[in-house]
Design a protein that fits this description.
The protein is of the alpha/beta class. About 45% of the residues lie in helices and about 15% in strands. Strand 11 and strand 12 form a beta hairpin. Helix 2 runs antiparallel to helix 3 and helix 7 packs parallel to helix 13. The longest helix has about 30 residues. It starts with a helix and ends with a helix.
């Protein structure tokens, strides 16, 4: 009781202020109910949400003031230090945000404005993968220039959420072997047609092989492992003999960790993983709500955006270790389902990551690795799409030509 008696003036003012705010909002909501459509939104302002936010801030400030006035000097200093740091961070965020926004203003010179594609229309929710290609669907990859489409690429998906790989020779449709392709947009074939993907060129070079494309936009080793652990892929494949192929790019480390940038880019919709057992267990966004929200807060930071940084700032040894362990677990799941050890990891050409320890880590785990990092320079204009940063059909063709040659030399094909 002494606590409240000591602070009755402050509490009385606080209560009076809340009453005034509540009455004002009730009046405004009442007017909107009779004048508008009764949804509590007036001139695009949600009155109920505004009232809740104001009340929350007032309550928080009063509670903070009461704490500061009625605790020991040590606790007072800790509270003031904490909020001082918070206000400094918010101030830096605001200042950098102004600089960032000023730099984003369009120039007076007319420049072509590119937009798209609308990736959100390509996927559906999946309880183990987070996102998967919409089954039995054709996604139209559209890039616009000044509001008008200048390229449209259809991407056909089958009933198992795999991108369809058409036959180069329609007369030979019966194949005795399979080739399963796992990976990200490089494998899936971002911005290229169904007959320009890696699986297509591999199938074209091998007349007795049917290729199955299990890649997708933004996928990672987590997705390949989750798919094999939660689906009986062997029942989705007609052939009994074949090979599994995982295409690795260095950015897969970001996705395996996951980094702040990847939490934000994929909005937390990717498989969660128990790093001790290497078992996938649902979707990260829902199993780690605090980590997800904190990651999204950092992702939206204007400081992060302006300086183009990610967290962690650099790959750590344990990040590479986790990525290698995920790929190893994927190979083991493949071997269980298909009863063979013909699972290969391709290191994609990447001139920027010559010092990557991934080759050593994968070989230490007994995996079959094909190091194609020197096959051709990438990124490079002659191997990239002019309207997108992904590999062009020629890059896919060269890579699959080399893969075919190597697997035939090893007697796999």
């Amino acid at each position: 009781m002494r606590f409240f008696e000591k602070n009755k003036t402050l509490l009385a003012r606080f209560g009076f202020f809340i009453i005034v705010i509540a009455l004002l909002l009730v009046i405004l909501i009442g007017i909107e109910f009779f004048v508008g459509n009764g949804d509590g939104v007036w001139f695009d302002y949600d009155l109920r949400l505004i009232g809740f936010k104001i009340s929350t801030w007032v309550v928080s400030l009063v509670v903070l003031l009461l704490l500061i006035r009625n605790v020991s000097p040590l606790i007072q200093n800790l509270i003031l230090s904490f909020f001082s740091v918070v206000f400094v961070i918010l101030g830096i965020e605001m200042f950098v945000g102004w600089i960032h926004d000023a730099g984003q203003k369009p120039s007076t010179q007319a420049a072509p404005l590119y937009a798209g594609p609308a990736y959100e229309s390509s996927y559906a929710f999946d309880e183990s993968l987070g996102r998967k290609p919409i089954p039995n669907h054709t996604f139209i990859w559209v890039k616009t220039l000044d509001g008008k489409p200048f390229i449209q690429i259809p991407m056909k998906i089958d009933s198992f959420s795999r991108r369809i790989t058409p036959f180069a020779d329609s007369s030979q449709t019966v194949r005795s072997k399979y080739a399963l392709f796992f990976g990200c947009s490089f494998t899936y074939g971002d911005a290229v047609r169904d007959n320009e993907t890696m699986p297509y060129y591999f199938q074209k070079h091998n007349a007795d092989v049917q290729a199955y494309n299990y890649g997708f936009f933004g996928y990672s080793p987590r997705h390949s492992l989750a798919r094999l652990q939660n689906q009986n892929i062997a029942q989705q494949v007609a052939q009994k003999q074949g090979v599994g192929i995982y295409t690795y790019i260095e950015d897969h480390v970001n996705r395996a960790i996951p980094s702040v940038g990847w939490i934000g880019m994929y909005d937390g919709y990717f498989p969660d993983i128990d790093e001790k057992t290497m078992k996938t267990q649902g979707v990260y966004r829902f199993l780690h709500p605090l980590k997800y929200r904190f990651g999204m807060m950092l992702f939206k930071s204007r400081v992060r955006q302006h300086f183009a940084i990610d967290f962690p700032l650099a790959y750590r040894p344990q990040d590479y270790e986790l990525t290698a362990n995920l790929i190893k677990a994927t190979a083991e799941e493949y071997e269980k389902q298909f009863k063979n050890e013909d699972f290969y990891v391709i290191l994609y050409p990447d001139a920027l990551k010559k010092d990557s320890p991934m080759l050593t880590l994968l070989k230490e785990r007994g995996l079959k690795v094909l190091d194609y990092r020197k096959l051709f320079p990438y990124p490079a204009k002659q191997y990239q799409l002019t309207y997108d940063g992904h590999p062009n059909p020629e890059a896919h063709r060269l890579l699959m030509e080399k893969l075919t040659k190597d697997l035939k030399q090893q007697g796999v094909l």
